[in-house]
Amino acid sequence: MLLNKFCNISAKMLIPLLILPQKEDSFQKTSVLNIVFIAFLQISSEKEVFRREIVEMCEKLQTVEKTARQLELDNERLAFKVQIFDPAHVLLL
Predict the structure, then answer these.
(1) Secondary structure class of 20 (helix, strand, coil)
(2) Which residues lie closer than 8 Å to 36 by C-beta, 6 or more apart?
């Protein structure tokens, strides 16, 4: 949950914080912010990769579900045809 909130922060909001320091004492603070910004970029790119993978998996799942439904229909048709052409069934008529 925290990761998701962090990834939704706009890069435009962080860039002004990363301007090179005017004073030496703020150098350490800016270095930390640079590290945070780099981590933010890494997390954002990883999030995008995961998003693409999830979309791909959902598409595959939809294909599998459609195939399963078609197989069920095919099995029902075959069962009906077997029932019609069953010699025991014909004798009863």
Answers:
(1) coil
(2) 14
Read off the pTM: 0.50
Enclosing domain of residue 65: 2-92
- Type of residue numbered 37: F
Q: How many CB atoms lie within 10 A of CB 88?
A: 7
Residue with token string 């005017």? 22
CB-hemisphere CA count at 13 Å for 93?
A: 7
Model confidence pLDDT, tens digit, residues 37-81: 888 888 999 999 999 999 999 999 999 999 999 999 999 999 888
Cα dihedral angle (70, 72, 74, 77), rounded to 10 degrees? -140
What are the Cα distances from residue 93, in Å, to 79, 83, 86?
19, 13, 11
